[in-house]
Amino acid sequence: MESKVTEPDFVKDYITGKSIPLVGPEENRQALERFLIEEKGYSKQDVVVDEKLVVDANGQEYLSRIDLMVYVNQKRFMAIKCAAGSLGSREREILAAARLAENPPVPFSVVSDGKTAILLDSVSGKNLGEGLATLISKDEAGRIFKDIKRTPLPQDRLMKEALIFKSYDGMNVNIASGKNL
Questions:
Q1: Domain ranges of the chain
Q2: Residue 136 to residues 77, 83, 109, 110, 171, Cα–Cα distance (Å)
Q3: How confident is the model over 43-92, as pLDDT tens digits?
Q4: Distance of alpha carbon 25 from alpha carbon 27, whole angstroms
Q5: What is the pLDDT of residues 17-30, one digit of tens each?
Q6: Are 167 and 109 in contact (CB under 8 A)?
């Protein structure tokens, strides 16, 4: 029996306008992009799609991406992982990504399937709420950001986070033409 490789369908990204493969959690990401802009008040300029992440994993540079990074006043505020399956299984991955994107860590982490979401404190890992309604609006974010006390993580903790992130990220389905790492 002959095996055929089919080309993926493509969709126009809601934020960037670029044509991207419709694979994995892409439909979920498109729904979440729309929600952030239309319901939570962010502008398309506030949300970066496929934010580049460079991780030092035991002295080796590891390149990846964070699905969505929400900025408030030109500062990283929320790192988001879009998932096609169980959200709980991706919490640890997005926490590690938010902790590695910058130090002190990005304040909030989110994992979402486009229909629901889990909001996490990036430093403590504490679950702050579930459901799309728990995602922080742009107006709320402006007020919250002023009051956040940001503390850098120690280097040994960052090394552990790098190994955790690389382990999870290696399980993700990446299509080179879509991710351009």
A1: 27-174
A2: 10, 19, 11, 10, 29
A3: 999 999 999 999 987 788 999 999 999 999 999 999 999 988 788 888 99
A4: 6
A5: 999 998 878 999 99
A6: no
Q: Which of 88, 20, 96, 13 is nearest to 47 (CA)?
A: 13
- Beta-carbon contacts of residue 96 (< 8 Å; ≥ 6 apart): 161, 162, 164, 165, 168
- What CATH class has 27-174? alpha beta
Structural contact between residues 173 and 85, judged by C-beta atoms closer than 8 angstroms: no
Measured CA to CA, the distance from residue 59 to residue 117 in angstroms comes to 34
Of 38, 118, 104, 111, the closest CA to residue 75 belongs to 104
Cross-strand bridge partners of residue 70: 47, 78
Map tokens 């306008």 to a residue.
Answer: 17
Residue type, 36: L
- Strands 108-112, 117-121: pairing is antiparallel
